[in-house]
Design a protein that fits this description.
single chain, 191 residues, alpha+beta, Arc Repressor Mutant, subunit A, ADP-ribosylation fold, 2 domains, three-stranded antiparallel beta sheet, 6 helices, 9 strands, disordered C terminus, binds ligand HQG
């Protein structure tokens, strides 16, 4: 399979597992998973892949991806982050590293420093474990993204819940502005 086909199928997988499982005719468990066999049947019925999509193909897509977006465990597949449908997925509550990052656009900054980081279209706020990852996330929206530094240790101590996505992506409930700063500025941009 060439990389463009892997990317094409990966986007369909994300759509089904993060955004619209109902359109594919399956339900997800509370952890966001569905059996691989049910998933393959639904994907093949919807997209008429020729040759038919197999578990081996999915494993090849996952192994060659730039990001770890999916996991297969005990015959079940799930998206690790990014969900947008209303039923909230249970992610594993985990103590975050002391500092996390969030890459965003200059345009969004005033509103973020006013309201905090909100999940917007997704179920959880997405944070990055390192600046490089935050840069990649932010570059989707701004050629010179703003990298916010999140005081995760203090937020967690104050009751904000954090969850693991993958080794680079963390999820959280909304993050009030007092835990956010633009690194390099002497003055934290909090209200
Ligand atoms: C912004 C991709 C205004 C937030 C990525 C972001 C990530 C606010 C946008 C994953 C705001 C939401 C998620 C506020 C937050 N006012 N704007 N109060 N609070 N925002 O796409 O974090 O390639 O839902 O800064 O790599 O950009 O799909 O979240 O710009 O890991 O696997 O609202 O999706 O992964 O955008 O990205 P998103 P995100 P995949």
């Amino acid at each position: 399979m060439d990389q463009s086909r892997r990317t094409y199928i990966s986007k369909k997988m994300s759509y089904a597992l993060r955004h619209n499982p109902g359109k594919y005719g399956f339900e997800l468990a509370r952890d966001g998973s569905v059996t691989v066999s049910r998933f393959l049947r639904a994907m093949n019925a919807m997209h008429h892949f020729d040759p038919a999509l197999t578990e081996e193909d999915i494993r090849e897509i996952m192994a060659n991806a730039d990001k770890q977006r999916f996991a297969i465990e005990n015959g079940r597949i799930r998206a690790l982050y990014g969900h947008s449908f209303p039923m909230q997925i249970n992610h594993t509550l985990t103590r975050p590293p002391a500092v996390l990052f969030h890459g965003t656009s200059h345009k969004a900054l005033p509103s973020i420093m006013e309201e905090g980081l909100l999940p917007m279209g997704r179920q959880y706020v997405h944070l990055s474990a390192d600046v490089e990852t935050a840069n990649q996330v932010g570059a989707r929206r701004d050629s010179h993204p703003v990298i916010l530094k999140v005081d995760a240790a203090r937020a967690e101590a104050d009751g904000v819940r954090f969850y693991v996505g993958n080794d680079k992506v963390w999820l959280a409930d909304q993050i009030p502005p007092k835990y956010l700063a633009v690194p390099g500025d002497n003055q934290e941009l909090r209200r």
